[in-house]
Design brief:
heterodimer, A: mainly alpha, two-stranded antiparallel ribbon, 4 strands, 64% helix, 5% strand, globular, B: mainly alpha, Methane Monooxygenase Hydroxylase, Chain G, domain 1, 69% helix
Chain lengths: 380, 123
């Protein structure tokens, strides 16, 4: 149960894979920060960082050097242990939840099947939801450990907001589970691969030019999930935790230097989880437009007349690129929304979560269950 | 179960994060106490008085209690949702559908009561 594999080779592969995915996440953060700063500059009609390196691309490397030279500060009023623990724990939930998201088809060799993800969890949804909501503890630790009332109020607001939107998020996912009948993310992606086909009353409608994505079956669920994901990752328009007009900087008021950077890695990690889940649930995961993974591999083998082994490798690369493109589009939507919409007032935020999104998610669940029941129970 | 992998990477990230904290401490050095004000909690230019035992609204506790109730009800729906298609295939679809709808009526009544009793009003 506790082992990471059956042989030394498997254990080594699993360990290297998890470390690799973690560093991929950490490496994506400078690019995202650069994209966010250039994107906001583009939206607000200014230049943004453009001095360090081509297009300002290595700006964050320079920032990291600056962070390293900052003196290490902890406020005297706070709890030093919690104050130093919080940024370390900010890294953990985001990274271990992201590892359960599949990023490409498995690479099959004669003796071993490499999964292109950190590890496969057969109850993927429950695992990711459970782990990523541990972020509330990080924020509370930071708020309590700082010993400042701005930090504490920001942390309380953030945790109340995270748990409130957790309900709408969890209930929006019930529609997805009803649709695919599984908790396993890989099985969900397989259910969405290939051309559009829909069975109702014993008939099957097919459209070979359209993909079989979840968004066509769960449009309301997709919108609710994405909106709740914004609240879960504390991004505008839901960033009440760090509303600078009223709370200075929220739970990280007393933080600076490298500790601040670690909170940033955690926040961007949550954005990545939200984008990855959005792609996996509603946009076919790594699957290519209206084609199953087997089709893609066959196409590579036929058109390039290569062996199945090479075709498999090419198919892994193609699916990974496809996943990355979809993933990047959602990350860009996160950034674009942040620089487009204003912030909510706190009571509006709570009302939206409890009185608007929760009833809509309930209605979505009931309608999905009814449609599945009626269309598959009664055969005309 | 990938539990071994989860525990391994958790420990790895914790070690990595601790390393970063110590690295920043080593390269940046400890903060020099040039004045007392530097080490006081942040305040907007005046002398800070309030400590972290500031009174906080009871609404936060209420929200947390309501969250636990509703979250358990939602988690209760997960196994039902993942098995719903196989229930239909095995012929007990009507029974499972009706029983979950009865549960949802209770859920909706709870939400309606919560809204009506003004448990969610922030003023």
């Amino acid at each position: 149960m506790l082992s990471m594999g059956n042989s030394t080779f498997e254990i080594a592969i699993n360990a290297v894979k998890t470390i690799l995915v973690f560093f991929m996440m950490v490496q994506a953060v400078p690019i995202l920060v650069w994209l966010e700063r250039r994107g906001s500059a583009f939206i607000q009609n200014r230049f943004g960082p453009n001095r360090v390196g081509p297009l300002g691309l290595i700006q964050l490397l320079a920032d990291a050097v600056k962070f390293l030279t900052k003196e290490d500060f902890a406020p005297e009023a706070g709890n030093r242990f919690l104050f130093y623990c919080a940024p370390v724990f900010a890294l953990i939930p985001a990274a271990i939840a992201y590892m359960a998201i599949p990023m490409s088809v498995p690479l099959v060799t004669e003796s071993y099947t490499f999964l292109i993800q950190g590890y496969e969890v057969n109850v993927g949804i429950v695992f990711i939801l459970g782990i990523s909501s541990l972020a509330a503890y990080t924020i509370l630790m930071a708020g309590w450990g700082s010993g400042s009332k701005f930090s504490l109020m920001g942390a309380l607001r953030a945790s109340a907001q995270i748990i409130s939107y957790e309900l709408a998020l969890g209930l929006a996912i019930v529609g997805v589970i009803l649709l695919y009948g599984t908790f396993n993310l890989t099985e969900m992606i397989h259910a969405q691969a290939g051309a559009f086909h829909f069975s109702a009353f014993g008939y099957t409608i097919t459209a070979p030019w359209a993909p079989n994505w979840g968004i066509f079956y769960q449009p309301v669920g997709a919108i609710l999930f994405f909106a709740a994901a914004f609240a879960e990752s504390n991004r505008l328009p839901f960033d009440l935790a760090e509303g600078e007009a009223e709370l200075v900087a929220g739970f990280h008021t007393e933080y600076g230097g490298f500790k601040m950077l670690m909170f940033f890695i955690g926040e961007y990690g949550h954005m990545m989880i939200a984008s990855g889940l959005m792609v996996t649930f509603y946009f076919g995961g790594y699957s290519i437009w209206a084609a199953t993974p087997a089709d893609v591999q066959q196409w590579f083998a036929d058109t390039l007349s290569v062996s199945n082994q090479v075709a498999n490798i090419l198919s892994v690369i193609a699916h990974f690129l496809c996943y990355t493109v979809k993933f990047a589009i959602f990350l860009w939507i996160f950034i674009h929304v942040r620089w487009t919409l204003p912030r909510f007032r706190y009571d509006q935020l709570m009302d939206l979560g409890w009185k608007t999104m929760l009833p809509w998610a309930l209605a979505n669940t009931i309608i999905t269950a009814t449609v599945i029941f009626v269309t598959s129970y009664f055969i005309l | 179960m990938p539990l071994g992998g989860v525990i391994f990477i958790t420990l790895f990230i914790a070690a990595f994060g601790t390393f970063l904290i110590f690295l920043a401490r080593w390269t940046g050095g400890k903060a020099k106490k040039t004045s007392q004000a530097k080490f006081d909690v942040y305040e907007c230019g005046i002398i800070g008085e309030e400590k972290k035992d500031t009174k906080i609204s009871v609404k936060f506790y209420l929200t947390a209690i309501l969250f636990i109730l509703f979250d358990i009800e939602i988690i209760f729906m997960y196994p039902w949702a993942s098995n719903f298609k196989s229930f239909i295939a095995s012929g007990v679809g009507l029974y499972m559908f009706a029983s979950m709808m009865i549960f949802l009526v209770i859920f909706i009544f709870g939400l309606w009561w919560e809204i009506r009793s003004k448990a969610l009003e922030w003023d």
